[in-house]
Amino acid sequence: MAKEREQKKLMFGLIGNYSAELKLLLTTLFLLCSVATFLQFIPSRFTISASDLRVCISRVSQVVTSTPPSTSNSFISHLTTTLSPPPPPPPPPQENTTQNGILKRVFNPYGSASYNFITMGAYRGGFNTFAIIGISSKPLHLYSKPTYECKWEQTKKPNETTKTLSTVGYKILPDWGYGRVYTVVVVNCTFSEHVNIDNKGGKLVLFASTSGGGDRNFNITDKFEVLTEQPGTQDLSVFTSKPKYDYLYCGSSLYGNLNPQRVREWIAYHVKFFGPRSHFVIHDAGGVHEKVLEVLKPWMDLGYVTLQDIRDQERFDGYYHNQFMVVNDCLHRYKFMAKWMFFFDVDEYIYVPPKSTIKTVLDSLEEYNQFTIEQMPMISKVCHSDDYGKTYRKWGFEKLVYKDVKKGIRRDRKYAVQPRSLFATGVHMSQNLEGKTTHKTEGKIKYFHYHGTIAERRESCKMFVNSKQVTYDKNPYELDTTMRDIAGVIKKFELKMIGSSLQKTRQ
């Protein structure tokens, strides 16, 4: 009994110690519950709900329950500290009712769907003109009218006043609507006078304005520097002098698990075909793996090949690994370095008839600034029975000898240009150039297309026949040994140029 009396005395003592605080807490709870009951009768447009107060009450209850007080001061201190921090910012409003009883809805934007502009390169096109190559939001260009302004800011010394040149940027969309999230944009900046003619240096700045696209309440303008010319570094004679190369190849984006043997054959063939005054620009979008690099490296060391790593462009969702942007960058980057520029793929082989050379053919087409090239499609699954059991030793264009002869269909063409006449380009031809274009090149130049072979890492021959005509998958094919007959010459040329380093290359 004595023990129970002591416990009761201790309990009442504790209650007595905290009687003031408990009275305050109970009074607060009573008032909050009264307010919560009262709010149920208030119209719904009132912004504070009873549920919000119940949440608040539950939090206070949790604090009281979980706090074992030791002294009156510590209890008050803990309660005050727990309730003192400011509440988190409220979520954006979703709706409210106006005085006229209209329900006003609210739209809250987060993040950004796509960038205004992503640059790949900017290059001079002459004494007073520049080209800026990049990609931009396709919806922006499809549903709005973004604008561009170019400024040239000359490098100035302290206390020196310089003039800033400005001009409207003329935009070209060369991908024919094939863009995805992003579309290709070439901005031409042509000033009214020569720029940096005194070689003092300067920089080209682009102002890209959305002009109401995206969010119509805003006309967002992004300013960014696209090109810098250091003092004394600009060689303006390149615009009037003879180009370094007669022929330059601009390759589309290489991606996927490419066959190194097919790449080996293609580069050896075309170095032989175009000759010593030629150059090949290869763009690696993920396809130049270690084995492919091995077959390109000897030609890189000889100065025939430039390999560019463009894998970072995969971050931006454009058409076909952004190949339209890539070929336009190549066009403007090497515009004054080549007399003729070719655009085709690494499963296609340019060919001119016997007794002709690429030089004689192009000399006959000198009056045209662009010409297209006829396609000869070759099937990759049907081979001649003479090669049965020996295909692993044959080069691709040596064993694939059956040509598609189906009539009445339109086939893709590839093309070549005199690049100084172009403002922008495409994959199969350019629609932005000065001068004439011709498509009448049959009998002069063509290309053999071995579709699908560049990405095939195993033996392609599936069927062997001993006939001049064959039907496969309901398509007619005809024996054509044009490329097979010159395979030996190409093999000897490769051996002469780079030795036997690639003799063990496999698919």
Describe the structure.
- Residues 84-94 have a biased composition (Pro residues).
- The chain crosses the membrane at residues 21-42.
- Keywords: Glycosyltransferase, Membrane, Transferase, Transmembrane, Transmembrane helix.
- With 507 residues, the chain is α+β, with helices and mostly antiparallel strands.
- It has two domains: 118-234, Immunoglobulin-like, CATH 2.60.40; 242-498, Spore Coat Polysaccharide Biosynthesis Protein SpsA, Chain A.
- The protein is built from eleven helices and 25 strands.
- Strands 10, 11, 12, 13, 14, 15, 18, 21 and 22 form a nine-stranded mixed sheet that branches.
- β10, α6 (260-274) and β11 form a beta-alpha-beta unit.
- The radius of gyration is 37 Å and the shape is globular.
- It starts with a helix and ends in a 9-residue tail after the last helix.
List keywords for this structure.
single chain; 507 residues; alpha+beta; Immunoglobulin-like; Spore Coat Polysaccharide Biosynthesis Protein SpsA, Chain A; 2 domains; nine-stranded mixed β-sheet; seven-stranded antiparallel β-sheet; 11 helices; 25 strands; 27% strand; globular; Glycosyltransferase family 92 protein; EC 2.4.1.-
